[in-house]
Write a structure and sequence with these properties.
CATH superfamily of one domain: Glycoside hydrolase family 3 C-terminal domain
Strand content: 15-25%
CATH topology of one domain: Rossmann fold
CATH class of one domain: Alpha Beta
CATH architecture of one domain: 3-Layer(aba) Sandwich
Bound molecules: beta-D-glucopyranose
Radius of gyration: 27 Å
Number of strands: 26
Helix content: 25-40%
Strand order of the largest sheet: 11-16-15-14-12-13
Largest sheet: 6 strands, mixed
Number of helices: 23
Length: 747
């Protein structure tokens, strides 16, 4: 058995260890967490307090790192409280040993961007969001935590819960899409998955809801750009997933690079002190984003790095990631009276509390377990789950003439496109500890599935980027020799992600031209679109008979895709973001307002809120996703059509699998408040259920509409309901409503 850390060190050590180690177990048990925290805090010098609030990057970098050869020395002298980007049980132990050479021996907290898996890579978060499957999403986050924790991580910088409505913004890949309700459900599932049974369990890590707040609303979809949101939009759309993460117990929050209404989020008191720590009573700590404290100088908000530190601390930012503002300036700021020491103490307390809860004072290496790391990281059972989550994330956009599923007896299959044999790209932008050599490519997935039964020929056709069509002839020939063609096209892993904004969201390079050339052969073509954002591909959408949107699916991509192609898994994914026809429509999202001049259809454009050169309709709507079977909806019943204030309404309907294949449907419930003191969106997702049905089976589904689902922020920004009529819509997508009714909320 591992001996508690404090007993293992010399009895003459000072500080934190004595506080815990010298008390009897019974006494120690009786001590509240607060007493323990205070007992450490009172021993700390101002410099050590500033050190606790300081976080440095380590071996790898996920941002613009500063070359600092003195880091080790700073760790030994108690000037560093946390490190990010240190991977592996052995490496975290080594650095922890350095921290234990410091006067108070306060252990380091290790954080890492474990966004969609540690080594076993799951689909990118936007892809997982398309599963609308909270159990799967929670499980994926949990496995990421199991692996990361075994490898010495205490903390993940996830989930990113930023609402994103602009596909130019590369970080849409990291979130849950455009909708606050779906986003909130997913935020909750991810936090619960990462944090497991409890903070301190060695199969769990601290979660971090980021980026607080509004980061996804960057102007023109350009990363780090200015954000100017109305209070209404902030509260109605951008804050709910953060609140959901908090309610699920998120231990930490990260603030954001962007300014909001003229004030950088990192120095924003309203966000951090008034809302988060005030109104929401958040007990955890806030970490800055990478260098975001120092960047307030560039924003023109702080005059130098020290001033930025002052503003950030006063605004409620507790830990400084890579700005060096706190460690270098806080002691002097306190001594000169510019920052009250009590605020520094509060920030230190918040961090120490987490270190205690994680059990690091008892055993600083309890997460860094080489044997456990060997056993759990990339474990085969994790791969199985990754395959299942990957299948669940795939969206069937189109299936004309039932080209899919492929007949398993197909003899000749052509696989064409630059992503056909690729492994690395399935990692997506945010895989931080992957080994893509172990990933399953589409080619391998098809080979695994069809074995010797089929002759599978692969032709790359063209690169992901670039102008060369030199490979077209071979690709066309390969298609001509096949019974069916599968095309693997899309973005490279580094085309959507942080600082990966694009002004053109079309299929890059010559890929759409390649699709045209292959479709022209007249062979049945199935297009697999792999990307980190909604792409525009109008020609393909119109002419390719079958399209699967597969995002970047992680370790098991090829197997999952083969499962779906052959019908071993019936696709059930639904888009968590609207797919525009052109960039000119952006921002485009389903929960739009009606306007004073709504257009009734594509031809109704004269003096209407419409375009003269394109429809208002997206290419694929929010919630869209097909299945190999057909679902019919019926028997809509409302418990009442006149609802008393404060009462709940029960809605039921039947769902029937009218096809010949078992399948799952995501039944989506939308509401519209028809007349209110503030204009309301034409529809808002308020509930959904993912239902599995055998062929011919019918189930009755029940939804409860509570008064919260009818509420909104009125003109005084009070969360309230108003009497009046509501429209209720149930359907298979936001543009595929199958059942429709109205009810009235009484005074
Ligand atoms: C990103 C954060 C990330 C941090 C650490 C920043 O550039 O915005 O989301 O957690 O780097 O890697």
């Amino acid at each position: 058995m591992r001996r508690p850390f404090c007993k293992a060190v010399a009895t003459a050590t000072v500080g934190a260890c004595l506080v815990v180690g010298s008390t009897t177990p019974l006494l120690a048990q009786r001590k509240t967490l607060e007493q323990k925290v205070d007992s450490v805090l009172q021993l700390m010098t101002l410099e050590e307090k500033a050190g606790q609030l300081n976080q440095y990057t380590g071996d790898a970098v996920t941002g613009p790192a500063v070359n600092d050869p003195t880091k080790l020395e700073q760790i030994r002298s108690g000037r560093v409280g946390s490190m990010l980007n240190i991977r592996g049980a052995q490496r975290t132990r080594e650095l922890q040993a350095e921290a234990l050479k410091s006067r108070l021996k306060i252990p380091l907290l290790f954080g890492l961007d474990v966004i969609h898996g540690y080594q076993t890579t799951f689909p990118i978060p936007l892809g997982e969001a398309a599963s609308w499957d909270m159990t799967a999403i929670r499980q994926s986050a949990h496995i990421a935590a199991v692996e990361a924790a075994a490898a010495g991580q205490h903390w993940t910088f996830a989930p990113m819960v930023d609402i994103a409505r602009d596909p130019r913004w590369g970080r849409v890949m990291e979130g849950a899409g455009e909708d606050p309700y779906l986003g909130s459900q997913i935020a909750r599932a991810r936090v619960l998955g990462f944090q497991g049974e409890k903070i301190g369990a060695t199969d769990a890590v601290l979660a971090c809801a980021k980026h607080f707040a509004g980061y996804g609303a960057a102007q023109a979809g350009r990363d780090y750009h200015t954000v100017d949101l109305s209070r209404r939009l902030l509260w109605e759309v951008y804050l709910p997933p953060f609140k959901a993460a908090l309610d699920a117990g998120a231990a930490t929050f990260m603030n954001a690079f962007n300014e909001l209404d003229g004030i950088p989020s990192t120095g924003n008191r309203y966000l951090q002190r008034d809302i988060l720590k005030g109104q929401w009573k958040f007990q955890g700590f806030v970490v800055s984003d990478w260098g975001s404290i120092g960047e307030m100088v560039n924003h023109g908000f702080a005059k130098d790095n020290a001033d930025a530190g002052r503003l950030a601390l006063l605004a409620g930012s507790d830990m400084d990631m890579e700005s060096r503002s706190y460690v270098n300036s806080l002691p002097a700021l306190v001594k000169s009276g510019q920052v009250p020491e009590e605020l520094v103490n509060d920030a230190v307390r918040r961090i120490l509390r987490k270190k205690f809860e994680l059990g690091l004072f008892q055993n600083p290496n309890r997460f860094s377990d080489v044997a456990r790391e060997k056993k759990l990281v990339g474990a085969p059972e994790h791969r199985q789950i990754a395959r299942d989550v990957a299948r669940k994330s795939i969206v069937l956009l189109k299936n004309e003439g039932n080209v899919l599923p492929l007949d398993k007896k197909t003899k000749r299959i052509a696989l064409i496109g630059p992503l056909g044999s690729s492994k690395l790209n399935h990692a997506g932008f945010w895989a931080v500890n992957y080994d893509s050599t172990g990933y399953v490519s589409v080619l391998e997935g098809l080979q695994n599935k069809f074995g010797k039964q089929a002759n599978i020929q692969y032709a790359r056709g063209c690169g992901i980027k670039g102008e060369s069509q030199a490979g077209f002839a071979e690709a066309v020939k390969t298609a001509q020799d096949a019974d069916v063609v599968v095309m693997a096209v899309g973005e490279a892993y580094d085309m959507s992600g942080e600082a990966k904004s694009r002004t053109d969201i079309g299929l890059p390079g010559q890929q759409e031209a390649l699709i045209k050339a292959v479709v022209a052969t007249g062979k049945p073509v199935v297009v697999l679109m792999m990307a980190g954002r909604p792409l525009t591909f109008n020609w393909t959408a119109e002419h390719a008979p079958a399209i699967l949107y597969t995002w970047w699916l992680g370790s098991e991509a090829g197997n999952a895709i083969a499962d779906v192609l052959t019908g071993d898994y019936n696709p059930a994914g639904k888009l968590p973001m609207t797919f525009p026809r052109s960039l000119g429509q952006v921002p485009i999202f389903y929960a739009a307002k009606n306007t004073g001049r709504p257009s009734s259809g594509d031809k109704d454009v004269l003096y209407k809120s419409a375009y003269i050169d394109q429809t208002n309709r997206p290419q694929y709507a929010f919630g869209h996703g097909l299945s190999y079977t057909k679902f019919t909806y019926g028997n809509l019943k409302l418990s009442t059509t006149q609802l008393g204030a404060g009462q709940s309404l029960t809605v039921s309907c039947t769902l029937t699998n009218a096809g010949k294949t078992a399948g799952e449907e995501v039944v989506q419930l939308y509401l519209r408040d028809l007349v209110a003191s503030v204009t309301r969106p034409i529809m808002e997702l308020k509930d959904f259920q993912k239902v599995q049905l055998k062929p011919g089976e019918t189930k009755t589904l029940t939804f409860t509409i509570t008064s919260d689902k009818l509420s909104f922020y009125n003109q005084d920004m009070q969360w309230t309901t108003e009497p009046g009529e509501f429209r209720l819509m149930l359907g298979s997508a936001s543009d595929d409503i199958r059942l429709d009714s109205k009810f009235e909320l009484l005074k």
